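Hi F.,

I've been meaning to write this up properly since the lab meeting, where we talked about keeping a consistent format for the predictions we share between groups. The idea is simple: the sequence comes first, exactly as it goes in, then the structure tokens exactly as they come out, then a line or two of notes. No screenshots and no reformatting. I'm using this chain as the first example so we have something concrete to point to.
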Amino acid sequence: MCKRFLLFLISLLPLSLLAGPPVPNEMDYCGIRLRFTPAGKAAIQKHVDKLTENPLYFNILAEKADLYMPFVEHAMRIMNVPEDLKYICIQESAMQGDAVSSSNAVGFWQFKDFTATEVGLKIETSVDERKHIFHSSVGAARYFSKNYVRHPNWVYSIISYYAGGTGAIPFIKTENYGVSVMEVDETLHWYAQKAIAHKVAFEQVLNRTPRRVWLEPVSTLGETDLWKLATRYNVTVEELREYNKWITASPLPAGYTGSLYIPRKDRGYTFVEDPTAAHVKPLLEPGQEQQSAYYALLASMRKEPEPVNLTLKEPAGTSDIAGTQTGKEPAATLYLQKYRELPPAWSNLRYFYIGKDPLMGQAFVVTTENFDLTAIAGQFGLQESNLRKHNNLAPGEPVPAGRIIWLQSPRKLSYYIVEQEKTLQEVAVRLRKESTRLAVLNHLDADAQVKPGQKLYLRTPRPADEPVILYTLTDDTIDLEKK
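Output, unedited:
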């Protein structure tokens, strides 16, 4: 009855009083001074107002965030990432440890199983660390750090958290790499807009009242029986399960030592460090993002490029990039124009592990010792003879492990990964394409040498803000080198 009356009173308030806190003209966020354009400020304000439009729900969410946020903040500090990233935990799951999305992402930070394993979280029959607030926050910080190395701007690392390191590229401006001041307009990716809005909405309400209940982390000390753990720490099994959703079954795995959260009401709040924190190793050293040679290299690459002087062989006739005879500008001229639309000549190389490519299993697969051409044909319902034809393999020719196998005809592919070809002309012959057109689409010289693993666009131009990508089968790290 009281809640209904409260909601009735809220409904009588003017809309102006229900609006969220105002977005400032500029603010510090993740160590960057964000300066909002009027349109950018308005876009973020809409997210803030949406978050705060229901005061009752907002206050419940803030109270829940108060319960768990100390462990998120601790994880961020240990991992040397900005503490402002903590608000994304609210954005992802509303601080629900057992939240599950429609795409089967789980836990406080909404990890899918393969990503969780990649960042060091355990998922077993009776343990799912995606639902453990400290462990999952360390995993999230590790993922942010990894994407920060790819795109050295924490706002872009946030976009990468949603879209992936490769998927974030269309929404990134490389001139903002390593900056301390950044203009934000309405074109900023919506996920980053919401992340900023969460800070605006929640920053002033967290830690505002004494905690009625707080959580004390304690070690399981290798014990696997929940009843014994509950008895040891003087709580019920029900309470143990309520605040430790990461325990999905009993008993715990033999030899597993983790941290339990014990609800405390009998004494005032005191922060207690997670007993597993001593084993956490950050990817970034303190201050590395300001002091590393990586940033020095980026700074040097932002210098004005020298004028581009290219000598191209004029193709036979005066065909345009579509290859038809015309009186329009010759292909060489079009190529020069395309080249000058690129980021300057310092455009870098990026190395990606091929198994993380978003088209893996759709446009191509990679053979292993147990996943040969016959197995690939069977899994995808294709004829082995067609696979051989698509991949320029003779009948009966052995296919070594680690070979890229295209599932479609080269003529239908959107992009191609170079294997052993040495020149762009040789690739063009293999794909039955015109080398001049490949040069235009990929901003390359028509006589260019291409490297094994290099990604070439076949239908659309390589985005101006996308670096030259090289894929590797042996390393999932990302390096940067001057071209």
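Notes:
The radius of gyration is 27 Å.
Residues 1-17, 290-347, 475-483 have pLDDT under 50 and may be disordered.

If this format works for you, I'll send the rest the same way.

G.
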